[in-house]
Input
Amino acid sequence: MGATGAFAFTTLPAASATPSASAVIAEVYGGGGNSGATLTRDFVELGNAGSTAYDLSGYSVQYLPGTPSSGSTWQVTALTGAIAPGARYLVGEGTGSGGTTALPTTDAGGSIAMSATTGTIALVSGTTALTCKTAADCAADTRIVDLTGYGTAVVREGSGPATGASNTAAVARADSLADTDDNAADFTAGTPSPVNSAGQTPGSGDGGGGDGGSPTDPGTVRVHDIQGTTRLSPYAGQTVTRVPGLVTGVRSSGSLGYWIQDPTPDTDPRTSEAVFVYTGSTKPTVAVGDSVLVTGKVSEYYPSSTSQSNTEITGPTTTVLSSGNALPDAVTLDATSVPDAYIPTASGGSIESLALQPTVYAQDFFESLEGMRVTFADARVVGASDAYGELWVTVKPDENATARGGTLYSSYDQPNTGRIEVMSLDTTSTFPAANVGDELSGVTTGPLDYSTYGGYNVQATQLGTLVDNGLKQEVTRRQKKDELAVATYNVENLDALDTQEKFDRLAEGVAVNLNSPDIVALEEIQDDNGATNDGTVTAEGTLKRFTDAVRAAGGPVYKWRYISPTNDADGGEPGGNIRQVFLFNPKRVSFTDHKGGDATTATSVVRTRHGVELTYSPGRIDPTNAAWEDSRKPLVGEFTFQGEQVFVVANHFISKGGDQPIHGRYQPPARSSETQRAAQAAEVNTFVKSLLAADKNAKAIVLGDLNDYEFSQTVTTLTADKVLKPLITTLPAAERYTYVYDGNSQTLDHILTSPAVTSFNYDVVHINAEFADQASDHDPQIVRIDVSKCGRH
Output
């Protein structure tokens, strides 16, 4: 926490229209680490021209590009502490790859990559990102305490921006901190001269607490100083010297390194007492229980472009002082300690600079424990073990429990906070094969880490004992004589080159677990030659092997219909050309062929003297529409069952690839892929409307992998005007899922029906998603329709 000293606090003025006689922006430098630069890091220096101290709690500095575009946003770095009378306050920002000299110890820090030549910096009363993008609009925003535009900045004070900023030059006020609200007049260019609140300049301290003491004496910086009170280290880009800690975990594969934890914590619950020491390609030589001093550079490692970061010490020099020391007590993760709110928001911007609130938000709580030893006991598995040696548990056993032991994901606004991923640091033992509903009995303990896949996770040095709770695959009932059974199943990139075991297991799912439906819509049937990109688009060999395997498993002799896609036009695995396929049992149902459909020709609904028909069956829905770019096109088929006409639309909407993670640094996360899925849903909705306009009693079944939730805009668009009913909503809430991801049981696959389908029985058949041993990552589902009791022509 920042020292307050023996002076009174007053409130900073919140206006920029009147020249400030108190807190001002004193110096701005965006060339840190650039070519020719001496300093390694960008900075903003504040000054206090008044006679009393000013409290900066809840304030921020914010940056806007010099010529903002429609997509430009203000980037925010939160401030803490105060500026003493006549003193300076140093805010470190982005670090470059060049330069040789670190800043003195910063008073606050962010990671904004400021331009060296043009931009705008604002001192703001609050941490919410500004929205103004013109000088006039910003002048009217009373939250702005002071503002500096430099280079060619559009947003500036007075007659023009400060000039002369470059890789080697900062813009700074005179020592008097005079403020006339004219950036061009108040600032001049010169050699960067950062000063922190302690009066340190580059060279007056090493920026990392080095004191020239004995090699076995700790330096002045502790781990909690490095971690700070936000998600970003105030020491990022700086070298820290002889940081003390106990080794609590060693990672000797993958990202090599070890965790240290200070056994003497501070009193601030926001500051973690542990940090990961990254050793690069060098296998760590330390052992758990070693007392060490670590010298190295502090960095923020981002596993992906939208993830949060891991604070690390890199390029370390380690001195082992002693071994076999008792480790600090682990922090317990349970329903009492983990808050119910998930994560703060920042209007879609980064939350990294926001002060942590570990008693309010679960993700802030975990961040405040980054690297520290944590523990939980007797936790239920909510995400099965995978090939990477990972599983998910919940430390909140009563949080949205499913009927089979998982944790239901049912709202964007209320993510499950008790989920935590578990990995093992023990490379000598086999990771347990756990299914959803099993239990990690006893105690699991280890450092808390963060990764792009799933977010926070426990790197277990002690792993609980797996208790098998006997989860079984479901088997649905067979359809009755007068029931038409229609199913959907994503078979995960099936092609003729796959093993017979994969064919047999998927076939058993159809013949046994689904009990041989009359119609099966398959998603992700690839070319016969798999992902070989040689122009092959047929799937005859794949479907022959699959239907033979179904027959061998006791199912019927299915026939099939599909439309070969245009090569490399439907997304999926490059060269694979995944598509939807109809399988049908000709002894129970007939397919009505209307010839002529192909990859780029749209089918439509027409009235004939025989009734309503498709122009092409099988056919595609408007395949050249931009909604289907690089995505699968819906397959439509016309069937007859016991004299009744049924229209089936098989779908596989575009994936969620590119969406920001719910645990990432941008909050709320952008779901960019939803835009195209909503457009796809609108196309299918329009097609169903055309069918119902021709025959209001038409029996339509829309099904497949929609890659979106029942509460999503995609499903809302698909069902607009009540032309379709999502059958997943007819199940009890605890049973509404077809897929498990990051410990969340969720719905991605759907069956929807038109209003005439009034007599039905619907079931999600759980055979894959909850199990460590999967034939596919999706569960199939089925609807059985008594057509004789449904609306007639």
